[in-house]
Design brief:
Blueprint (H helix, E strand, L loop, with lengths): L6 H6 L4 H28 L5 H22 L14 H4 L2 H13 L10 H11 L3 H17 L10 H13 L1 H25 L1
């Protein structure tokens, strides 16, 4: 998606990159928060004591960090991609919202990290709709932020450079993702423990 929603790509389509990206962020955050709210309602109905919720979250955090270190960058979910033909058919903000909603819903696109499933579990285990909505909004925001580096791609040379950089850092990204996952999910654990 970085190559599709870049400053270069949006200029070529006669659109403003910032508008498309803001719409994408809005869609991702709104979808994540909505999904979180619903899953929080479900989780609130589960007959789990707070200590059990905390134990489950702790186990899940450990499992996801190990899973991401062992399996990344293999797919661990659906093979579906966001339809990049939307970029040529719809206005930038429409495509942005559509892409964002799919990203915020977590499993509506390709899943390459076990983090996605733990985030969904965290929304349920927190057992509170507003806290689960916060987790979902944060998740959607992080997914939306993946297009921000596209703001520096102004010409084909920049695009080629970005592609090379992504290829070179692919192995390092596995460890960064695992570390960030563990850290980020501690927020969910803290919310779970409060419940």
């Amino acid at each position: 998606m970085l190559g599709s929603i870049s400053l270069l790509g949006e200029r070529a389509r006669g659109r403003r990159w910032a508008v498309t990206v803001l719409a994408l962020a809005f869609g991702a955050i709104a979808a994540g928060a909505s999904m979180g709210f619903g899953l929080g309602l479900v989780g609130g109905e589960l007959p789990l004591r707070p200590g059990i919720r905390t134990l489950l979250m702790t186990l899940l955090i450990g499992v996801v960090v190990v899973a991401d270190l062992v399996w990344l960058p293999r797919r661990v979910g659906p093979l579906r991609q966001v339809n990049d033909q939307w970029l040529g058919v719809y206005r930038g903000w429409v495509a942005g919202v559509g892409f964002g909603v799919q990203l915020g819903l977590a499993v509506a696109t390709v899943v390459i990290s076990a983090t996605t499933y733990v985030v969904i579990a965290a929304m349920i285990l927190v057992g509170d709709p507003s806290e689960a909505a916060l987790i979902g909004a944060l998740y959607g925001g992080v997914r939306a932020a993946s297009v921000l580096p596209g703001g520096v791609i102004k010409n084909p040379r920049d695009l080629a450079r970005a592609d090379r950089l992504l290829t070179l850092t692919d192995g390092t990204a596995r460890f960064v993702v695992a570390g960030a996952t563990g850290t980020w999910l501690l927020v969910a654990l803290a919310l779970t423990e409060r419940s």
